[in-house]
Amino acid sequence: MKKTLEICCGSYEDAYNAYKGGAKRIELNSALHLGGLTPSLATLLLTKENTDLSVISMVRPRGAGFNYTDAEFEVMKMDAEILMKNGSDGLAFGFLTSDGEIDIERTSEIVKIIKKYNGEAVFHRAFDCVKDPYKTIEKLIEIGIDRILTSGLEPKAIEGKEVIKNLQEKYGDKIELLAGSGVNISNMDEIMNYTGITQVHSSCKSWVEDKTTSNNHVSYSYAASPNEMKFDMVSTDLVKEMVEKL
Fold this sequence. Notes:
36% of the residues lie in helices and 20% in strands. It has 8 helices and 12 strands. Strand 7 (176-180), helix 7 (188-195) and strand 8 form a beta-alpha-beta unit. Helix 3 (70-85) runs parallel beside helix 4. The chain is globular, with a radius of gyration of 18 Å.
């Protein structure tokens, strides 16, 4: 089966760099330092206008967890409609109840919007915060989710490869599994060979200096040392290396 590399992008420039590197599919976000939030419409439109990438847009209104208020859910539904109407090939999203179970009703509503535009429904790493991944994946299959982004319930996918392998063996013929978190050129082969999955998700991140990040007694830094004065950007060269190895 054909192997797929999905690049996690936080801007139009990230998307264009991924495209130049030979990627075919991206997850499009804003604010990757918060785990990825909903991208702007301009980011999506420019990406679709100037690349032939398959774009999975994130629908996530804030950082932290995945148990949203009614007001947040109204925004997410409208974002879903706007993104799909304007050319997104699918959406990545996730809804949990306060006790760590799938919010079936809200998940189903977003899937319905996506399918209206013949798009792909991707349940993101909210999956890694559930109590029982096996019962959860069965519910997601029933709801109509096409793909799950997961690190196997561990901080990094390489650490969760046993769970990913088990999920692939049990459910890989019913739903796609995409391994993400800490996936890079040094471990992607091990992850895919061990688990049997054919899709990986990587940031291919490099650091770019912005000297205005901190000045006087004011700092807008979000990166740890030695990158306090930098922001992250997709590296075309790293994408190329992973594509070639894949």
